Each structure stands twice: as C-alpha cells, then as structure tokens.
Amino acid sequence: MDRFFVKERNIDISNNELKIVGEDVKHILKVLRYGIGDKIEVCDSNNREYICSIKNIDKDNILLSIDKEVNINRESSINIKLYQGLPKSTKMEIILQKLTECGVREIVLVDTARSVVNLDEKKSGKKFERWERIVYEASKQSKRGKIPNLRGVLSFNDALKDMSNNDFNISPFEAERSLGIKEVLRSEKIKTLADEKKEINIGIFIGPEGGFSDTENELIKSEGIYSVSMGPRIFRTETASIVATSIVLYELGDIGGI
Q1: Region 180-192: what's the mean pLDDT?
Q2: Which residue ranges traverse the bilayer (predicted)?
C-alpha cells in the first residue's frame, strides 16, 4: 500500500477524515491513477498512521475517510544525526536517499576544508528544495514514521559545537589506526548508555571527497569525538555515511531484529 505524509492540521479526527494537498495530489491521480474507494496509507510524521479510503477528489486536494488507525512504529530509539561534509550534488542525492532508508533522524550539511562544492545563496534554495523532496520520497518508500530533518550548511566549527549536544559522537577517518568503530560501539560505556536511556542521540561526522584534513581530525579528537577506523579499505564519502550508519544501528540493536 502506498504511503503519504500529511500535516496534523489536515487531520480531522472528529469527522474521521483527512486531506492530502500539494504535489502528492498529482502523483496519486496522474501516476498511481487512484480513484474513489482506493486505499492509501497515511502518516502524520509523528508515528501515527492511518489506513484510509479516497472519499472525494478535487484538483487541489484529496479527501479521505479514516478506516482505522494503526500502531506500527518504524522509528528507532537510536537517534542518529549525520553530519555530512558537502560532497558533489549527485553524491549528495544518494546520501540523502540511503540515509533516510537506513533510519537517520537528521542530516546536517557541513562546509569543511576539502569540500569542493560552494553553495551560493541563489542556488542553495533550489538545491535544498530538491534535496528535501528526495528525503520526502525516500521516507514514503521506506515507510518511515517521521521525515528526517535536513539542516545546514554549518561551518566546521559550528558543527563541532552542535555535536556537543549529542550523547556521544564518532568520526570515521581513513588514517585512523588505533581505534575501530566496533571497539567503540561494543565498549561498556556505550552499551551502558544505550541500555539506560530510552532514546540515545548519536552524531556521526563524515568528511567530503578527500576526507578530513589532519588539522580537522585533530580538532575533532580534541572535542572528545571518537576518531575511528571502519576497516582496511577506503570508502567514498557516500559509501562511508551509509556504512557508518548501518554499523551503529546494527551494533546498538536497531537493524537485524524483527
């Protein structure tokens, strides 16, 4: 069943109805070719989900009757905030799509020393609109209960300050040889933290093409962020973000269960 998101203001529980507006109207009618009586899965972006039937169709909106509310929580208690050094736009699109599928809660774009992309004010608005749409479509496809937040662009130093609000942070670095990501995640400190807290906030800082500079990596470590190795091979930036996220979610019990 196809899933769509609506704002809470478009849900009328008293009348057992909700309304879909915007770009999704065209997709439902022109692409999926749904009609009166067809069923759709709708989420309010706050983990409340509804099975609905199309009741009325207008060119600007679709009115649905709520058949039943379902309780299928697909969101993780492991809140990952992925800090991504700005890559080229094609790679950015892959990162946004796949991280949304993995379950990341927030994606923060960061301008680092080796970032090759410079988002000027005129272009950034359109790019962010496109990127937010990619996150939205990936949220529908993967049946997320919440749409990940996309934020930035932060300076490197501002990103470090932002990371201080997390419970702990890791930063994969290709030249790291003293500490592995598995060693950190399996440590008693992290296991205890994950067991004790209802929700745990984890930051993952990924460098752009070319990775972090040595100076940046030293600053990262000076802030108490774990600089970690992910193994003997070097990942591209878009691969590193997906692999690091998957490892964290697996080790802390989100991926691989039922």
Answers
A1: 92
A2: none
Q: What class, spelled out in words, does domain 3-70 have in CATH?
A: mainly beta
Residue intervals in the chain for CATH 3.40.1280.10: 78-251
User: What's phi and psi for 34, nearest 5 deg?
Assistant: -75, 155
Q: Where are the alpha helices (DSSP H) in 142-203?
A: 156-163, 181-185, 188-196
Question: In the chain, at which residue ranges do the beta strands (DSSP E only) sit?
Answer: 3-5, 11-12, 17-21, 39-43, 49-57, 61-70, 78-85, 106-111, 149-155, 168-172, 200-206, 226-228
Q: What is 78-251's CATH number?
A: 3.40.1280.10
Phi-psi region of 82 (alpha: psi -120 to 50; beta: other; left: phi over 0): beta
Segment 97-112, tens digit of pLDDT: 999 999 999 999 999 9
The Cα–Cα gap between 54 and 65 comes to 6
